[in-house]
């Protein structure tokens, strides 16, 4: 709101209503004390970790939740049954929540915001990651640090760009000993705004004597021999790379390089600074596939088509269709492969590029249109031998080559003035950093550069590490009498009025 332009009397009145309401709500929640009881359960455990046993994992979850309950009137009590408010799972790939994990790297965990839905508060960790604690960052992902971040989402916090916050959207490495960790002040303020302050906690100082359960879990040090946990540091750097293929899939952007890809949400926010492995996400591609030539989402049935050399694969969601790969001669394309493929929003047809030629294919009738190939010079301003192309939700088409991209708006066939521009700067959040090195850069729970102070929006209201959610209500869905639920209608009103202002 502070950056909104108030340009008429009605908007000015709405602006004052919002500001007054916001101020009253903040005072109510900061200074109203109440207790919220919640019951977590670790339902499944890491399957491949020889170092993190069940009791260690349970202890880490206990201390990660305690970080929040030490400063706010939140009370977590572990339960063993199915009535838990926060179900904690270690799982892989597609685990039936609409947000499959992508193997080592990429998204490492995600959590549901509080709300009315059955899965509210549930927190999932990718079991393909090398989980550890009290270990150097190169040994794996610090489970305690990731858990603190994800439980922040589970109680209703969204991401922030504050440099010291645990709620930054990229994993930043270990945060220290779980027995001694203290939340940054930025995070304390935000949770106090939702739940109030515990009686013994100062608004300006850290807790002097945080409450303890009678017998808190014991955290033992890990064995010295940790060589099996070493994670290979990937040499790929999104900020200096060119890309083999680029595609819009399910409204998100995918940048493919070698055996890996980076993924952006609908709002062009990176899901993770670390790339994910292609064959671990799309199961059915050969594990030894060294790169892909082009990728596009087929109009009509929304299946995903991958091209490499003389072959192509068709996927339904993350699973390859039976009978693939097949030869690209099925499309009537040259046997030496394609450079780029995208669906033009203007006519919903698929365009293939190779060298200085392009083809127009009708996916609905599964046939190449007559009169093709044609010379790419008809697309004024585009370079030859593209890396790939895609359409985007703004209605424009985007073409990529090397470290640059070109934009063609709407139904035009001419590059917009001001292009080419840098891919790294405009798409891959490289304005403030130029390296993915774990020593100089953050990585994901994420923990994001140029991060906005609001959640992204997804169709199902699920908070994942890519920060997509419809709502961020406070914890307490199962406690209908909790005064925090007064926030929900005001929050909805606030979002509605904000959208009118914009």
UniProtKB/TrEMBL annotation:
Zn(2+) 1 binds at residues 95, 97, 110, 124. Residues 433-457 are annotated as: Disordered. GO terms for cellular component: extracellular matrix; extracellular space. It comes from the Eukaryota. Ca(2+) 1 binds at residues 127, 129. SMART domains: HX, ZnMc. Keywords: Calcium, Hydrolase, Membrane, Metal-binding, Metalloprotease, Protease, Repeat, Transmembrane, Transmembrane helix, Zinc, Zymogen. Its cofactor is Ca(2+); Zn(2+). The modification Phosphotyrosine is found at residue 324. Ca(2+) 3 binds at residues 102-103, 126, 129. Belongs to the peptidase M10A family. This is Matrix metallopeptidase 17.
